[in-house]
Design a protein that fits this description.
Blueprint: H1 5-9, H2 12-17, E1 20-24, E2 30-34, H3 58-64, H4 69-77
């Protein structure tokens, strides 16, 4: 029997290994992502952070790299710099 990814994610095995986890979509709902690819008997794996929106950290990263504010704004205005609407 060949299973779909959805079928596999809903198996007892997947629940035991936390193969799939639900994360907030930051809009009041959730969605499912693959869990950690491994699990060790004596270790506790921290939950990963909530996935970021596309382009959400672009301005922060450029500022940390020392890019001038005017240059960042020109890139945003020209549509070169991706910036998700959730960050505005």
């Amino acid at each position: 029997m060949i299973r779909t990814t959805k079928d596999l994610a809903e198996t007892e095995w997947a629940r035991y290994w936390n193969a799939v986890r639900e994360v907030p979509d930051r809009a009041g709902g959730t969605y499912r992502l693959p869990g950690h690819p491994w699990r060790f008997s004596d270790a506790t794996l921290d939950e990963t952070s909530v996935p970021r929106f596309r382009g959400e950290d672009n301005v922060t990263v450029l500022r940390e790299l020392g890019v001038a504010e005017a240059e960042i704004q020109r890139a945003i205005d020209a549509g070169i710099l991706l910036r998700d609407s959730a960050t505005r």
